[in-house]
């Protein structure tokens, strides 16, 4: 990971990140000044499951993959994060362990904002802070909606497999053959 020093050069690009789109240019410039920009290589971890987090991240360019370890300590891919999307936002609200690992799926440029700096921003620029909070909450609600949809599909899939098992058993059981 390499940290970028000339952060204001990213102003036009950062405007395209979902939660920053509605900020005025001066609000966005102030946001960049409390942030850091990091360059990651393909396969490099940005956050690690189990570590305590205190930062919000936004993918400026590139993409990443989200993994969760299962009970056998195997990484299970649960989602992808594309350019313009944010992650780690729950660490702004909760001082708890990360629930997933995020790894770069390509060379990526990522914006990082600490809880401390974001709270400072909210207090100093309440109008911009309210917009950001609203967009962060909407983003988390959208992620929750998708997680719920995935759970429904998984449960539906379980039911379908049970149905398939029964159907296969009917086909291979000879006792159910019609008599002449």
Features of the shown structure:
single chain; 180 residues; alpha+beta; Jelly Rolls; four-stranded antiparallel sheet; 5 helices; 41% helix; 24% strand
Give a short summary of the structure.
This protein is of the alpha+beta class and 180 residues long.
What is the CATH H-level superfamily? Answer: Jelly Rolls
Q: Regarding quaternary structure, how should these chains be classified?
A: single chain
Q: How many angstroms does the end-to-end distance come to?
A: 75 Å
Q: Which spans have pLDDT < 50 for at least 5 consecutive residues?
A: none
Q: What is the averaged pLDDT score? A: 85
Compute the gyration radius: what is it?
Answer: 22 Å
**Class from helix and strand fractions:** alpha+beta
Strand content: 15-25%
User: How many alpha or pi helices?
Assistant: 5
Large-scale geometry? globular
DSSP helix fraction: 40-55%
Q: How many beta-strand segments? A: 9
Describe this protein's structure.
- It is a single chain.
- Helix 4 packs across helix 5 (126-172).
- This protein is of the alpha+beta class and 180 residues long.
- A hairpin with a 5-residue loop joins strand 5 (64-69) and strand 6.
- The protein contains five helices and nine strands, in the order E-H-H-E-E-E-E-E-E-H-E-E-H-H.
- It is globular and about 75 Å long.
- It has one domain (2-173): Jelly Rolls.
- The termini are far apart.
- The longest helix has 47 residues, at 126-172.
């Amino acid at each position: 990971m390499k940290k970028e020093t000339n952060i204001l050069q990213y102003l036009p690009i950062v405007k395209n990140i979902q939660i920053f789109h509605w900020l005025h240019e001066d609000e966005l410039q102030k946001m960049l000044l409390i942030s850091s920009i990091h360059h990651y290589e393909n396969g490099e971890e940005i956050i690690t499951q189990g570590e305590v987090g205190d930062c919000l991240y936004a993918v400026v360019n590139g993409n990443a993959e989200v993994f969760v370890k299962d009970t056998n300590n195997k990484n299970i891919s649960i989602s992808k994060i594309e350019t313009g999307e944010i992650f780690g936002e729950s660490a702004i609200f909760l001082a708890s362990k990360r629930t997933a690992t995020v790894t770069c799926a390509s060379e990526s440029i990522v914006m990082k904002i600490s809880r401390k700096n974001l709270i400072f921003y909210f207090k100093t620029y309440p109008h911009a802070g309210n917009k950001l909070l609203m967009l962060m909450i909407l983003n988390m609600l959208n992620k929750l909606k998708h997680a719920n949809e995935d759970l429904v599909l998984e449960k539906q899939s379980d039911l379908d497999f049970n149905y398939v098992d029964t159907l296969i058993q009917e086909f291979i059981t000879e006792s159910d053959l019609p008599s002449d």
